[in-house]
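It would be a great kindness if you could assist me with a short task in structural biology. The full record is reproduced below for your convenience:
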Amino acid sequence: MSVKLGRESFVGVGIESSPDSAVAASKYLPFVTCTMRGVQEPILDEAVKGVRDANWGAIVGQKHGEGDIETYVDVENAPYLIYAALGSCSTDTSSGETAVWEHTFTRKASNPPKTLTVIYDDTQDIRKYTYAAINTLELNVSDGLATISANILSRFPSTGTGSESFETERILAFKDYSVKFGSGATGTAALTAAGSADATKLSSFTLSINNNLEAHYLSNDNDIAQISMGEFAVTGEYVLFFDSTTDRDFYETMIDDSNAVRAMIATFSGDDIGTGGKEEIEIRIPNFHLSDRTTDTSGFITENPSFVAEYDPTETKTIQIKITNETSSY
């Protein structure tokens, strides 16, 4: 009897130049969890045939791939998931620095955003998931390492090839992030105010991006024919000690004030890179409102606001994520 070993699987991702055009993995993600799998839905024969038994057989119906990939947040791995979730990337050489690039990710207007080819070795074989679109993307940080989790919808898996190759990563934790809030007459002014504000000390922070994917099936094939993007939504929540009435007042009064806009800048700062550069993930939300606010009085008194990001016409976006790293292009 052989001894079974664990932790030998791997996940690789590549950004497809066009949807469902398979590519080799260009990045292997050190993952926390991966639940990628093929799903096929049986169509049952339940016709009445003179006996009490309900099922007489089945044929294969709709097929697709699905699952979650969760990894720690660092500036080299996270962009592959963020790019696929948002769909648009522009890259500039970081000013005054050498071998450092700044990548700005925003929501792509056309449908669909970028898709991935996912290569998953589950230790028994290697499976390939093409046309892999990100349904939801969630970033979480509390008092440990920051994580990012993607819920993925794809075509049904086929046989794949790959050989893992991991690079040294510099993961980010609660000590590496800060969140600033600002307000002003417009989203731009609110972001400017946030940039100069003092950081608000949070106990935890969660950001969720939802593409509301929908799979479409057409005649002569039971695999996914097209993935459509539904309404784009950005939500989240944070927890902080109830030391002031700032968030309570915003929740109770500012949502009705058309001249008052609140913005958020969340920044993760890592190691020094290149010449004069620094690893960074900057999340900019120019306009948001609080959808709920609860308090917890069972121990230390905390408040737990939930927020919804709004499209801001002055910034022409709901969210922008800028990542500074040592990768020249995606």
Notes: The chain has one domain: 10-40+62-159+168-325. The mean pLDDT is 92.
